């Protein structure tokens, strides 16, 4: 029997209200009612009685409170006791770009250390989306942090945040070019074809408007080249925010400002261990835009 039935029963018994229990569990009211009915059919006894608009627990329901409480305590103790073995034996394999690994994951992983001290995470750097998708499909990665939409019916994807892309140049180069904001006047440090950042700017900028000096597959390498004064480029704002604030870099405003979505992706058949579920919950908690990840986790056993 599904342990969730007893969680639902105990919450309804505590609140004496099916609607409020459904809201707290993020279930629909009919779902909660159906779960209570499943228990009543299994035990052959009514657990609640509705008189007017009020819900009252029956003698059978009061008896079940005792045993359901013990059952959930034992179940939680079992999970806690076994978690250290499963977490240690099966670290979470996470694929991410250098941007995500360096600037986005850190606060989430810090919280994960506190919530799952026995858990471990292995982060692999992915330079392109096909590599990431392959890793999810062949189970190399349990999760991946991606910057682009994945069109594959075996992969689930949940949005986490919207990030800015900015056109930047070193201040010295900006001065040399007479404070020009037109990117076409600068040597351009480009991303390799297939990179989401390149795909984004190619939607609004013609190929002849950028004069590629050199191409990299890594955003950190491009940031370093821009800081060295080799040319201008387009980079995630989170990578260059500190340099814009201290004046080392200048934002070029001659082209439209672009955005991209950071999301977490995993195989739809991925078994959610306790550690993996905890990590996904942290992603949901840290999300800065609307995400359906909470709802998914509440419905996934």
From TrEMBL:
Do the record's keywords include Glycoprotein? Answer: no
Which intervals hold domain HTH lysR-type?
Answer: 1-58
Task: Please list the GO terms describing molecular function.
Answer: DNA-binding transcription factor activity; transcription cis-regulatory region binding
User: Per its UniProt record, what PROSITE patterns does this chain match?
Assistant: HTH_LYSR (PS50931)
Q: Among its keywords, does the record have DNA-binding? A: yes
- Superkingdom of the organism of origin: Bacteria
**Keywords of this protein's UniProt record, alphabetized?**
DNA-binding, Transcription, Transcription regulation
List, alphabetically, the Pfam families matched.
Answer: HTH_1, LysR_substrate
**Annotated InterPro entries:** LysR_HTH_N, LysR_subst-bd, WH-like_DNA-bd_sf, WH_DNA-bd_sf
| SUPFAM superfamilies, sorted | Periplasmic binding protein-like II, Winged helix' DNA-binding domain
Report the sequence similarity comment from the record.
Answer: Belongs to the LysR transcriptional regulatory family.
- What is the name of the protein in this document? HTH-type transcriptional regulator YofA
Question: What is the scientific name of the source organism?
Answer: Sporomusa termitida
Q: What is the lineage of its organism?
A: Bacteria, Bacillati, Bacillota, Negativicutes, Selenomonadales
